[in-house]
């Protein structure tokens, strides 16, 4: 075959077709990274299906990851978005989960990568995306790329657990965890199905570590009038937040139930110097854990580095942990969070 000097360009760069998201495995096949044509990216470690990086189009990291985090599968990851299932914390008085380690086994099991899917909003002459960029065919292609998203799916079932985990939690289940990257948001969605002949109970939480510039300038809205359990007191105490925003100036470990008839519909906004930095939207996750270890607790954690890293992170963790979710045979539980860059305050 004659090697032509002028070969056709790759399909992804063919005129009229938008560039496509790229998905690649790490050299050791321990993680998968998806990158949008506009530059945003997300990386997920197969160990725990833990999101370990989320960057905007300029390469700025949005999640906090400890410099001492173990990414080799030797222990759960300190930072990113660890996935908590089927128990939040430990539950020594709960018969089904009393033998499990803290936060269960989802974050310490190797998940299977099931594949990717992409979607895009097709610009038309009436859409803002088209109006902003589609002054030509090339502009329409650019608009399509800007509206593109990529979804990564991961799976874990009872048959994929370690022998130790199966002995401590001998129930059949199937879990699908989806991570969807958009240009201005990240969505994590968990669907757990009871494949057993017995009913079982579970708790679910997404332990999100958000990166901030300076914790002293951070405030959190959406929690006014919410009841919360303060886990820094002994024994834990229950009270109601009266201030319109939460600020953090000491160790904080609170399990909130936002006020209202639909607590999972209340947006939680993280502000920096009174400007919205993240807005956390929740679906079927009625609780929000806010955590920052502060000085002494950070010193006591070997995998928390740097020790003053508490100044640059705050955990805002959507979950269903206030009660137990009861799944009868064949039933499924689904919960999701979407973290939007920026957003509006509750007062807007």
How would you portray this structure in words?
This protein is mostly beta strands. It is built from four helices and 21 strands. The protein has helices at 128-133, 137-146, 163-168, 294-299; strands at residues 22-25, 31-35, 41-45, 50-55, 83-84, 112-120, 148-157, 173-181, 185-194, 200-206, 209-211, 218-221, 227-230, 237-240, 245-247, 252-257, 268-272, 275-283, 287-292, 313-327, 332-341. Strands 6-7-8-9-21-18-17-12-15 form a nine-stranded antiparallel β-sheet. Strands 5, 10, 11, 13, 14, 16, 19 and 20 form an eight-stranded antiparallel β-sheet that branches. A four-stranded antiparallel β-sheet has the order 1-2-3-4, with no helix packed on it. Strand 8 (173-181) and strand 9 form a beta hairpin.
Give a brief description.
The protein contains four helices and 21 strands.
Helix percentage range: under 10%
**Oligomeric grouping of the chains:** single chain
- Identify the strand order in the major beta sheet: 6-7-8-9-21-18-17-12-15
Q: Report the count of strand segments.
A: 21
Which ranges are low-confidence, i.e. pLDDT below 50, for 5 or more consecutive residues?
1-14, 122-141
Features of this protein?
mainly beta; 8-stranded antiparallel β-sheet; disordered N terminus; 348 residues; 4 helices; 21 strands; globular; 9-stranded antiparallel β-sheet
Topology:
Blueprint lengths: L21 E4 L5 E5 L5 E5 L4 E6 L27 E2 L27 E9 L7 H6 L3 H10 L1 E10 L5 H6 L4 E9 L3 E10 L5 E7 L2 E3 L6 E4 L5 E4 L6 E4 L4 E3 L4 E6 L10 E5 L2 E9 L3 E6 L1 H6 L13 E15 L4 E10 L7
Antiparallel strand pairs: 1-2, 2-3, 3-4, 5-10, 6-7, 7-8, 8-9, 9-21, 10-20, 11-20, 12-15, 12-17, 13-14, 13-16, 16-19, 17-18, 18-21, 19-20
